[in-house]
Amino acid sequence: MSGINLKDKTNHDNFLPENQLILNAVSEGIYGFDLEGNAVFINPAAERMTGWRSAELLGKNIHDCHHHSHSDGSHYHKDDCPIYNTLKDGLAREISHEVFWRKDGTSFPVHYTSTAVYKDGAMIGVVAIFRDISIQKQTEKSLRQALEQVQALSEKLSFENQYLQLELADRTGDVEISGSSEPINQLIQQIKLVSNTESTVLISGENGTGKELVARNLHRLSNRADKPLISVNCAAFSSALLESELFGHEKGAYTGATSRRKGRFELAHQGTLFLDEVAELSLEAQSKLLRVIQEQEFERVGSSQTIKVDIRLITATHHDLRKRVEQGLFRMDLYYRLNVFPIVVPPLRERLSDIPELVSHLIEDLNRKLGKKITQVSHKGMQKLMQNSWPGNVRELQNVLEREMILAHGPVLEFRQLTLTEPVESHAQAATDQTLQQVERQHIVNILKQTQWRISGSNGAAAVLGLPPSTLRSRMKKLAISRPI
Q1: Mind listing the pLDDT tens digit for each residue in 58-70?
Q2: Burial class (CB in 10 A: 0-12, 13-18, 19+), 197
Q3: Distance in Å from the first CA to the final CA of the chain
Q4: Is residue 394 within 8 Å of residue 355, measured between CB atoms?
Q5: What pTM was computed for the model?
Q6: Of 156, 259, 324, 353, which is least surrounded by CB within 10 A?
Q7: Could you give the angle at the alpha carbon of 27 between the alpha carbons of 24 and 29, nearest 5°?
Q8: Which residues pair with 248 in a beta bridge?
Q9: Bridge partner list, 298
């Protein structure tokens, strides 16, 4: 090819005469360009693919004829064209992601190479060889679509399998906790070990981890399963009202007590009493609770009559009770009474592998609640869920799912709008030198920011934190938290 005289534009018909028959016979399109970037040779295959006759292109800038735009129709400047760049630097190029435009205005995907041609050591032009890869691109598209269908079917089968496993668990009396990670397996083992005993259980864990679910399973698997499980959120009542809530009151015991009322201890007789957020009890209430635990008896507010009860006590808290004892906020003797068998519920960030199973279970429940027919989460959507840090744990995951399902128009959840939260670990190091109150304040502020400072409602900060809105407002006031202007 070094003998080609590309400078002689008038002799384009004699371009490589010794190889003319071969060049005319090949199925690839071939263009020859001089140093000005104008066409000096075009073979029949190039004519057939582009619809341009060689007589129409010879001596002209071919880029302006069939390479003027990208596949999306946007302008393709000649200075960006790999073929013309080879004219500048002599470097060979191979391209597979562009299109050539036919004379009739249609386009087709091409694979092409641009190679410099030299004579006596000097570059005298460029030859471009291209082929139509429409069939290849269509095949690739079909394969991608088939892969997506297989992936969707795989996800569907996975969800159906998880659903059947959950159904089987319900029928065989297994623990109703979604997940198969090591932390969850250890949690389930602890539940099974202690459920049939009468031992008091202290459940610890961050807000939203499912402490109440653990309590329900402890009761369901116990010998008291046919008796009531009575729950009390100790953070939901003031100190004055909590005593009446726990122990009941007589008519006229205080203003507003218009009739006698049984307390939660009395209602839980022969069953299980679950005290959630037990760390929120006042010291006075802690003293009375300690007496009931020791004596298994109490008096209603406004009565001197002793009532004996037979209860199994389960408590829960998101606080470190040991630290609260050291701070003088919780009675040490009560702490040891409650901490007979401690169970720690792992945060969601420590069991991310459980998210697919959790999502399957939650979608099933939310479909019934919302009247939806969501079947699955897309692969990319599931990846986003598993990359999140979930500071609000399972409750936050449930809220995100519910919001996404309400907005969904089809059977597949995509989570395109999900904003990934910063990993909790990034805050942990910074918090090591802070007081417990400072850590609590920062956590509440972080959740408020995530919920755009919405306090109440199913998507509000109170729901994520597992607190009544009134309690959250009280904590915000105490910790001097206010929305920035």
Answers
A1: 888 888 888 888 8
A2: middle
A3: 75
A4: no
A5: 0.53
A6: 259
A7: 75
A8: 262
A9: 307
